[in-house]
Amino acid sequence: MIQIKKREFKKIVNKLKEKFSLKERHTGDWRIRIFHEGKLIAGTKCSEGKDDIPPIIVQKIKKQLYFADDKELVGFKNCSLSCENYLNLLRVRDAL
After folding, report:
1. Residues 33/43, Cβ–Cβ less than 8 Å
2. pTM for the whole structure
3. Distance between CA atoms of residues 23 and 75, nearest Å
4. CB burial class (10 A; 0-12, 13-18, 19+) of residue 57?
5. How far apart are CA 84 and CA 90, in angstroms?
6. What is the pLDDT of residues 1-48, one digit of tens each?
7. R_g over Cα of the chain
8. Where are the domains of the chain?
9. Measured between alpha carbons, how far is 55 from 38 in angstroms, rounded to an integer?
10. For residue range 43-82, what is the model confidence (pLDDT) as tens digits?
11. In what side-by-side order are the strands of the sheet with 39-47?
């Protein structure tokens, strides 16, 4: 199980904005809804506090964004997995 920092989560969200429409709400939790071609495909949230995101929450985020394992999530965060490749993963996993 991995732990990520809030700024790393923001990096993931900003990368998703390259190919997807995002709706963000700040209600104490940072709620993100991800749309592709007008269709809701995923949604996730995390606390807006200053601490790192705990591993148990990272696992929920990973599942909600359809990443199969920690390696895919880290690859997306570190730019080795492009947004276009992520789109292909979503198609393969019938999330689109």
Report:
1. yes
2. 0.84
3. 23
4. middle
5. 10
6. 788 898 888 888 888 998 899 999 988 888 999 999 999 999 999 888
7. 12
8. 6-92
9. 31
10. 999 888 778 898 999 999 999 999 999 998 888 888 888 8
11. 21-26, 29-36, 39-47
